[in-house]
Specification:
Length: 324
């Protein structure tokens, strides 16, 4: 079968036309005829061997990708997750990960949504424990998952949403998706800190969902620092590190301010939360997208184009989707 394969860490993915279907691991797997697979930063990190969830110590070639949309043996169109890689014509998928797709939802859009919804909804609901009328700041809102986080925060009842990013076009678009205020991260450092500080004074920030880490996270944490007064509690949830994996964090910020710093990612979610993702959150997201109430931009390609597009940067927060 056709498959996109990586043989060792650091190797660029390659199209193999006669790659064998991996063996079925257990009775909890069913065969999926794959139709659409989104290519995400997580997939690229795993393929490169740089993500903590995958290594190449066994020396075996691996199919890239973790999740996608396809049809089961009875013709039912579903989203599902595979442990053996999914960017191929067929894949074994986990039964408990299967979520039916609405008939009027495009397969490519359905494939693109789950990772972004996972990175936004689980951070908002379970790590930040967002409540109705919370003030939410999305740091890195001009990325694919950041845009979804803005929309879900609005749907979950946020009173005020602040969005940061460097893409002026997407920042402007975010006002139509639920943002009340935007901060351009191309501004000078002092300006960014002052803007966050002014916003926090006027509408104290309950939740920060952070996709950048690095310097932008430092600016926000610095802006939240107090002079030892009673402070508003802020739950700062890091989901990604697009601006760098490390920060400089002053102990005085944590000692002077009621900040809770948490992470959201593989390894932080409970089995019950993952079950809720598959039984409640994703079905709701698919229905919203089918009605046009949840928006995500995609760029579709064929499997023959993956090698060309693998390292290509897409404009305006588009998700790359491979259609088979």
């Amino acid at each position: 079968m056709k498959a996109i394969v990586v043989s060792k860490a650091g190797e660029n993915p390659k199209l193999v036309n006669d790659f064998p279907l991996p063996e079925k691991q257990n009775e909890n797997e069913v065969l999926l005829q794959v139709k659409s697979v989104a290519v995400k930063n997580l997939d690229k990190l795993r393929a490169s061997g740089k993500h903590y969830s995958l290594n190449y110590d066994d020396g075996k070639a691996k199919i890239v990708g973790m999740d996608g949309v396809g049809t089961l043996g009875d013709g039912t169109r579903v989203y599902a997750v595979s442990k053996n890689g999914i960017l191929a014509e067929q894949a074994w998928v986990q039964k408990e990960s299967i979520v039916p797709i609405p008939n009027n939802l495009d397969s490519a859009l359905a494939a693109a949504l789950p990772n972004a919804v996972m990175g936004a909804a689980l951070a908002l609901r379970f790590r930040a424990k967002m409540k109705q009328n919370n003030v939410v700041l999305v740091n890195g809102a001009t990325g694919v998952t950041g845009k979804i986080a803005v929309q879900l925060a609005k749907l979950y009842g946020a009173k005020h949403i602040i969005a940061t990013g460097r893409n002026e076009h997407v920042l402007e678009e975010l006002y139509t998706l639920g943002a009340n205020k935007t901060i351009n991260l191309k501004a000078d450092n002092d300006s960014i800190v002052q803007q966050v500080r002014a916003i926090n004074k006027e509408t104290p920030i309950d939740v920060v969902i952070d996709y950048l880490w690095g310097k932008p996270a430092e600016f926000i944490l610095s802006a939240l620092k107090s002079k030892g007064n009673y402070t508003h509690q802020t739950r700062f949830v890091t989901v990604g590190a697009m601006a760098g994996d490390n920060i400089n964090l002053s102990s005085a910020i944590l000692r002077s301010t009621d900040i809770q710093i948490l992470g959201s990612g593989l390894g932080t979610w409970t089995s019950e939360e993952t079950k809720i993702l598959n039984t409640e959150i994703l079905p709701e997201a698919f229905d919203l997208a089918a009605k046009g109430a949840l928006q995500l931009n995609i760029e579709s390609i064929g499997i023959e184009d993956v090698e060309t597009y693998w390292h290509k940067k897409l404009d305006n927060a588009k998700r790359l989707v491979v259609n088979l």
